[in-house]
Structure formats: structure tokens, C-alpha cells
Design brief:
By secondary structure, the chain is mainly α. The chain has one domain. About 75% of the residues lie in helices and about 0% in strands. The longest helix has 21 residues. The model has no long low-confidence stretch (mean pLDDT about 95). This is NADH dehydrogenase (Ubiquinone) complex I, assembly factor 6, partial. Pfam families: SQS_PSY. InterPro entries: Isoprenoid_synthase_dom_sf, Squ/phyt_synthse.
Length: about 80
């Protein structure tokens, strides 16, 4: 059964779940020296992957986390 509204909802839900999973897996990936946050968002905040891995600029890393979580929330509201 093809339903455009259901497809639209599923698309936004999938994006929100994907972003949430990305955020939840940050510590796991960091233990392997991988940061999967979008580079453009890191650059917007003047943060590097190495900063995140070394625990530098924690306040800025929290801002990035909040921004990414906010994007997920926007998808849930659609």
C-alpha cells in the first residue's frame, strides 16, 4: 500500500532515529578514535574531531550535541 503521508512520516522518523543513534554511539566510536559528527557542524563551532577525542572544549561539544539533537527534534515535529 502506497501512502504519501506515511512515507513522509517514516522518512522524518528515520532521520530522527538516525541522528539519535549517532549521538548515542559517540562514546563507543570515540573509543576507537572515530567521531562521526558532521564536519560542517564541527567547523561552525570551531571544534575539531581531535578536540572531541581529547575532551577539549567540552562546553562547545555540548553545543554541537544540542544542535544535532535539535535537528532530530525538528524531524519528529514534522
Amino acid at each position: 500500500v502506497k501512502d504519501t503521508n506515511a512515507d513522509h512520516c517514516a522518512s522524518h522518523l528515520g532521520k530522527a532515529i538516525g541522528i539519535g543513534t549517532l549521538l548515542r554511539s559517540t562514546l563507543h566510536h570515540a573509543k576507537s578514535r572515530r567521531i562521526l559528527w558532521p564536519t560542517d557542524v564541527l567547523l561552525q563551532h570551531g571544534l575539531s574531531q581531535e578536540d572531541v577525542l581529547r575532551g577539549r572544549n567540552v562546553a562547545v561539544a555540548k553545543e554541537v550535541t544540542y544542535q544535532l539533537a535539535s535537528v532530530a527534534h525538528v524531524h519528529l515535529d514534522k
